[in-house]
Amino acid sequence: MAVEAFAPGMYPRSEALVQATRDLDRGRTTEAEVDARIEADQQELIGAQQAAGLDLLTDGMLRWQDHFRPLLQAADGLETGALTRYLDTNTFYRAPKATGAPKLGGPLEARFSAPVPGARVATLPSPYALARGTDVSPKAMAEDVLAAALADLDAELVVLVEPFLAHDGASPAELREPLEALADGTTLALWFPFSDAGALLQQGAADLPVEGLGIDFYATHLDAVGTASRQAGSPLGRSTYCFKYASLPHGSARPSRLPSRRFRHDPP
Description:
With 268 residues, this protein is of the alpha/beta class. 29% of the residues lie in helices and 22% in strands. The protein has eight helices and eleven strands.
């Protein structure tokens, strides 16, 4: 069994970067100075990942205000909506709002995916998360927005963040067709942060067309994974799955995290 370690998702900005962005809003600094601070923080984060021996590297998404913002600003038919609390944490995001038929004309600007010196893990919202509350279907979001964002994205693994499915009591089946629409050769994983994934596993999440699943073991009991594996007759019925080990206390504005680990089981 091979094990790979990586740390996907958005990293909390340093106090220096937070202050720099506030100063920019107030006209007390320049965009060039903020860019320099971001680049310095990215290099520090990359160095920390290399020192820890992680197999896949991330730039930390330090230019992303939340998981949606660059997509909403770049796509036609979408815009930033109401300031919304992120589940039961002390962080907030601008909820997606549809103003027409969403369409992303091409990949996001290169600055939203800074180069890393090695194999990359990238993170995007899942089709369900991006469509939530917009009256646009997850399949349409996948075909008309996320597919373009994935185009030319140089990443060994793309993790799709899905924090809402379990909280909404929705079925994993709602993601099957949207995920199939993204099956262009990109290696995808589906991550359920801040979620008890037990019910999703019972409803067949392991059968979705992704390479792996991300499980938040702060919220999900290990027995739920074992039960799903036994019912499938093999480890979640997959040759590969990934677990997200995280220390994510509810209400934490700056969560600390341990690396994710991808466990590869070679089928007999």
